[in-house]
Amino acid sequence: MLVSGLTAACAREHNDFSGPPRSEAERQTDATLYSSSPAQSGMTVCTFDRTRVLIAYYKSEKFSASMRELVAEYNKAKAAGDSAAQAACRRDGEARQALAHRQLVGQAPLANIVSDYREAIDAIAHNSNASLIIARDACTVGHPVDVTELLVQAMPPAQKTEPEDASVPLRAPS
């Protein structure tokens, strides 16, 4: 089964909202998109608006394509009468939804975003001379540089398609 951006184990791990509170170190790790090691003198700490980046990611063409693949896989399983594959697709979709919710509230790492946009994040870090790109709410240093817009621009939104009957007028012309 195709699982874009998540492994089945990761999906299972992030499907549970309960559990002990996360430590500050875990929260910082969860909020980090990029970290060079070791940080060099003169390098910049960059921040981003977690909510805006998450919304851009989940509206992106890359994520939408992975969901289209999942739906196609589900439809294929349904047509073949494969209830086990249908259930697996449903679990994957539910896990993706749960992960998105956990990420939004800061309870899950942004690993799927880093995986899907590694090259763009690395380029932003390089062009910004960044030693660290971390969510704004997890940043503890003085004067960081905000790279939210650069990250959002790196995640082009999926193209919206009009339903076939969208051209049908709601009322008859007079």
Instruction: Give the integer mean of the pLDDT values.
Output: 79
Count up the helices: 8
CATH topology, anyone?
A: Protein Binding, DinI Protein, Chain A
Count of individual domains: 1
Ordered list of secondary-structure elements with their pairings:
Elements (H helix, E strand, L loop, with lengths): L7 H6 L10 H7 L1 E4 L8 E5 L1 H10 L1 H20 L2 H22 L6 H6 L1 H10 L2 E6 L9 E2 L1 H6 L21
Helix pairs in contact: 4-5
State the main characteristics.
alpha/beta; Protein Binding, DinI Protein, Chain A; 4 strands; disordered N terminus; disordered C terminus
Description:
The longest helix has 22 residues. The N and C termini lie far apart (53 Å). The protein has one domain: Protein Binding, DinI Protein, Chain A, CATH 3.30.910. A 4-stranded mixed β-sheet has the order 1-3-2-4. The protein is built from 8 helices and 4 strands.
Overview in brief:
This protein is of the alpha/beta class and 174 residues long. The protein has helices at residues 8-13, 24-30, 50-59, 61-80, 83-104, 111-116, 118-127, 148-153; strands spanning 32-35, 44-48, 130-135, 145-146.
